[in-house]
Design goal:
The strands form three sheets. A three-stranded antiparallel β-sheet has the order 3-4-7, with no helix packed on it. A two-stranded antiparallel ribbon has the order 1-2. It has 147 residues and is α+β, with helices and mostly antiparallel strands. It has one domain. A hairpin with a 5-residue loop joins strand 3 and strand 4. It is built from four helices and seven strands; from the N terminus they run ααβββββββαα. InterPro entries: DUF6641.
Length: 147
């Protein structure tokens, strides 16, 4: 039995109990960027992308709570600009992330480049390049709830 275990790479790593908030926010944005990537890919192929989520409903007959899988509409973060170029904004919650001072959108150019640009943004988020902007958007969102 130990001969099989010797073929594996063993380590003394332990699972952390809680992720740092910056990592949680980064993961949240990565999930949403992944959905935008799937939406852009489906539109490029002429298909519809409709993800599903489980929602809890009360059964009218029995009164019991049941979980149903329902389609969820995703609003695209990309659009065609006035000059015919494709533009992409990155959102955290309901707030657009300011990528540079005064600039909130990426000029993708042709719609065919959208998936490649989204992949680049995903890599940048994974590397932590947008962490300050995510933190700023998170603070703005929290301030909106305090009012």
């Amino acid at each position: 039995m130990t001969a099989i275990l010797n073929t594996l790479k063993l380590t003394a790593a332990r699972k952390t109990r809680a992720l740092p908030t910056v990592v949680k926010r980064r993961n949240k944005l990565l999930i949403k960027l992944g959905e935008q990537r799937m939406l852009a890919d489906a539109q490029a192929q002429g298909l519809h992308y409709t993800p599903t989520r489980y929602r809890s409903f009360k059964d009218a007959d029995t009164g019991a709570r049941i979980a149903k899988q329902v389609p969820v509409r995703i609003k695209p973060w990309f659009w065609i600009g006035e000059k015919g170029e494709c533009l992409l904004a990155i959102n955290y919650g309901s707030k657009q992330i300011e990528l540079q001072k005064g600039k909130t959108a990426i000029d993708v150019g042709d719609v065919a480049n959208l998936c490649a640009v989204l992949d680049t943004v995903i890599d940048a988020v994974k590397n932590g390049e947008l962490d300050p902007q995510i933190e700023s958007a998170s603070v703005k969102l929290r301030e909106g709830f305090k009012k």
